[in-house]
Protein: Deferrochelatase
Amino acid sequence: MTENDTLEISRRRLLGTVGAAGAAGLVIGAAGGVGVTTAGSDGGTTDGAGADGTPALTTVGSTEVMFHGKHQAGITTPSQSRGHLIAFDLAPGAGRKEAVALMRRWSVTAEAMMAGRAPDGDTGIALDAGPSSLSVTFGFGRTFFDRTGLTPRRPTALDPLPAFSADALDARRSEGDLWVQIGADDALVAFHALRALQKDAGDAARVRWQMNGFNRSAGATAKPMTARNLMGQIDGTGNPKVTDPDFDRRIFVPAGTGGATDWMAGGSYAVVRRIRMLLDDWEKLPVDRQEKVIGRRKSDGAPLSGGSETTELDLNKLGPDGKTVIPDNAHSRISAPEQNGGAAMLRRPFSFHDGIAPDGTPDAGLLFVCWQADPLRGFVPVQRKLDRGDALSSFIRHESSGLFAVPGGPAEGEYVGQRLLES
Ligand SMILES: C=CC1=C(C)c2cc3[nH]c(cc4nc(cc5[nH]c(cc1n2)c(C)c5CCC(=O)O)C(CCC(=O)O)=C4C)c(C)c3C=C
Ligand SMILES: [Fe+2]
Structure:
């Protein structure tokens, strides 16, 4: 477990709000899933409910994600119900000096808001709310390095992603000098963070694109479970777990790689794709055919080869017709690490819905965000393979793309990116 996996209920909020609900102690050890332990003097349960069955909703507002740590927040942090992804370009004439000042400002603001404190010049949008699991994550795009005179320190991992045959990318909604991912379990808290960071950008950087997403709200299901996407599938089952022995090696850049990119130690690379779902077409497909597209049951996410959600896929199991029960073009088969030389990534997406497109179809889908120590051993080989023969590809369209270097988390007194910008 990493330092940022440990979420704490801020003592102040706990006493101020949760205490009133009778929850005497709350600890969230949250890597890969929220576990809420309520040691209430009222005999509350371990799923956050009080003895009288009243949900301890106050825990949603009270949960605090740590800003400082080995890794930035928002990577292994449990997915929040609201998200904003926003890319900025440095303003014309702005260079390294302005970038340093901006990263300092952003870090001060993010730290305050994640702790539930109002930043300077506050708008008041989040007044009354606790931190609500707010996380703010900062990344640098390929173009940032030229703009700041740091080209020699640009990692090769930021080389442009290859073009894929199914790409229908909008350049204006792709890439960017800087990238910010905001997540929170309250819509106002998330928007508040977005506004504060936009205001902090001042004259130094301009918004290039912004996308808004959502996930299931904490407490909406009877027990914590893997989220569903807008196609109705349980999505996230095959993700690497922080307890896997090779988790850190796959997701985070190791220290001591030496040389120009040492500043990325503890960091990770984010691939961001706005993937439209062709929901009208998808929903016309009978459920048994939808299940063959993925290779898993829709109801509970279990592999078509049998078992429960967490059972390994049996890719060789044959059906009565002599064909593999998980079809050759099933999404789960093609993307499985064992089919891709072990290539793995941590998928941490948000769903999006931006209304109805001009053709009358829903402009909805997945803000696909995946994390890896090296995109050439994560996203790229898997997407190459999916691009060639994934049954899901008839029902999705990749509309924008970004690749960002997300440096390690700041130590106390440091700002995000300091090891790049000041060495
Ligand atoms: C290149 C990477 C991937 C893209 C792009 C992608 C898009 C995408 N996926 C779903 C739905 C599901 N994906 C599932 C599994 C899965 N997908 C990827 C990679 C990409 N998906 C991986 C690596 C895996 C895990 C494979 C494994 O370890 O077995 C599943 C099954 C459940 C699960 O494991 O999460 C679903 C469902 C959509 C809807 C989508 C684009 C919109
Ligand atoms: Fe997938």
User: Anything to note?
Assistant: The pocket of fe (ii) ion (ligand 2) is lined by residues 331, 335 (CB under 6 Å). Residues 1-64 form one domain.
